[in-house]
Prior knowledge:
Elements: E1 4-10, E2 14-20, H1 25-34, E3 38-39, E4 50-55, E5 84-87, E6 92-95, E7 102-106, H2 112-122, H3 124-132, E8 136-138, E9 140-145, E10 148-153, H4 160-166, E11 172-175, E12 178-183, E13 189-194, H5 197-201, E14 215-225, E15 230-233, H6 236-251, H7 260-280, E16 283-288, H8 295-299
Parallel strand pairs: 2-4, 4-7, 10-14, 14-16
Antiparallel strand pairs: 1-2, 1-3, 5-6, 6-7, 8-12, 9-10, 9-11, 12-13, 13-14, 15-16
Helix pairs in contact: 6-7
Amino acid sequence: MAKTSYVLNLGDVSSWLITATSGTTSWVEKFAVIMKLKPEEQDQHSKWPRIFFCLKHSGKDGFLEPINLIDSKTYGNLPRSGWKARDLRSLRFWFHPAVQDVICEIENERNPELDIVRMWTSLYIIYLQVQESGGLPLHAALVERDGKGILLVGPGGSGKSTLCRRLPRPWCALSDDQALIVRDARKRYLAHPIPTWSDYLWQRSERRCNVEHHVLLAAIFFIKQAGCDKVIPIGEGEAAAFINYSSTEVSRPIWCDLDVEEKWTVKMKIFGNACKLARAVPAYILHAGLNSQFWDEMEKVL
Length: 302
């Protein structure tokens, strides 16, 4: 069986191969197009961990050892048993303590809306891995100016997309809903854009997002709508609390199948990473008017 795999690099921190198995090739291809991933060529990254996507099946007890869903001749080095499942409703992940590879089952049905939800949810396994190395997913727009990455953080409806549309050149909006923060080998914070999956879900846009592109994170702005423009510096404690809330908001779906102890561990990891990020990157409250040039105030502190 010919393999269909796409490369996903996150800074110099981690790399994944997004791999299709029988019946999931078109789904994985669409996933890769949205995130602008490049195909793997001739097993050049054979040692990288893979996320295998396969069609969901059930055994007599409701589960089937996931290795039985993958062509054993092609991927014969994976363990035959000992996999542990994590069910996220729209899909099911399988982990094994002896390997880094992950197997992800998706439903065998044609439903464009659910397909987008599954693509959205499938990134959570990568979020968990990024958290282990000090990174975080955030509910934030990622914009770039002169090579610097700037986050506009706020919950849904706070105006992130509106502010992104209003930014003039040389500002550039890379994403307007989510961003993934990773720490590189030099302990710097890099920011990657994440697609606005809700736009695909509600068919508002089909804008593609280059997830591999990253920028050095220079500042974090927490959005607050106001009648006049103002940028107010905030301390590490306040910034850490806001970052923790934003990342928790994104990460909460990961917790649905965790026991109390596992959930507590994930929460503490997010909080610890938020504190470290707040110490390393300056943070501000951004008061932005609906028709003002709010970016002028941002540029004064960059």
